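Lecture 7, part 2: worked example. A protein chain together with LGMQ2O6W.
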Amino acid sequence: MKLASLKHGRDGRLVVVSKDLTRATDAFFIAPTLQAALDDWERLAPRLADLAEQLEHGSVPAFRFHEHDCAAPLPRAFQWADGSAYVNHVALVRQARGAEMPASFWEDPLMYQGGSDALLGPREAIVAADEASGIDFEAEVAVVTGDVPMGSDAAAARGLIRLVMLANDVSLRALVPGELAKGFGFFQSKPSSAFSPVAVTPDELGPAWDGARLHLALSSYVNGKAFGSPDAGEDMTFDFPTLIAHAAKTRRLGAGTIIGSGTVSNRDADGGPGRPVADGGRGYSCIAEQRMVETILRGEAHTPFLRFGDTVRIEMRDAAGHSIFGAIEQEVRAPD
Ligand SMILES: O=C(O)/C=C/C(=O)CC(=O)CC(=O)O
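Predicted complex, written out as structure tokens:
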């Protein structure tokens, strides 16, 4: 089933959305919010699934679904922890700022705790105080968990993935080096992240979901121009169950925890860092990677970071070409 939170108060209003994303029906009589549904998932998910089936059959009142009416599926979440599962991305962004990548990054996932009190809906602007802060997007896949007991291993974590969605982990590249040098991790360099209009249960993904990875291309566009379409199932060194087990190693995770994949990034067949779309490659899911590859290939970066008025679109299509989650489409703006 496909679930969305329409803009309403702080936590949105839960709706069930049709598979083709054209219609929706209210689910508030089952659970007022997505968090409430996740808190009592075993009891409520079957009722939501029944409602989804009735929506497909046209046997419940429905209304037109508009992606721009959506908040993030979880407009505020108890936890948003973003992994870095595509080590190709980590290697490139570190190279871009002249930092070594320890060999342990291939065996031990990187993860940071993002702010989750104000997650952005799919059409909400990226507001940045300064164009010179290196405004970048990061296209990612994310999962939402049920309650995960402390110490759960990957096999247990696999069964606790409730929903899958897309994320834009907005990053301010110029702030990263100074902030990470302090040794406490990202804070100002990671403003609010945005999420796709719809979150889906894993069964909705068919064979593209193997229980641990999503094997489909994640497409990004900047100002309407294709920027990248790497496959989210390839080069994901740490799968979602492994990332969840990592997060739960020393603490339990509450239902509604969001775990991000990190920026989706593919290597070339020869192990190289891929090529930009303009050079016939799959491109990238963030500007920093493309700038690093331009530097490697041509001696300098020429793709600018985002400026006020630019737009970023992130979307994933199924094998038949249909949008699965709806699109994240954000304009970059100065504060009002
Ligand atoms: O090391 C840096 O300069 C920046 C790293 C990231 O932004 C990585 C991140 O947020 C996780 C990821 O996308 O893999």
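Residues 82, 84, 89-90, 93-94, 97, 138, 169, 171, 176, 262-263 surround LGMQ2O6W (CB under 6 Å). Residues 84-333 form a domain with the Fumarylacetoacetate hydrolase; domain 2 fold (CATH 3.90.850.10). Keep this in mind for problem set question 3.
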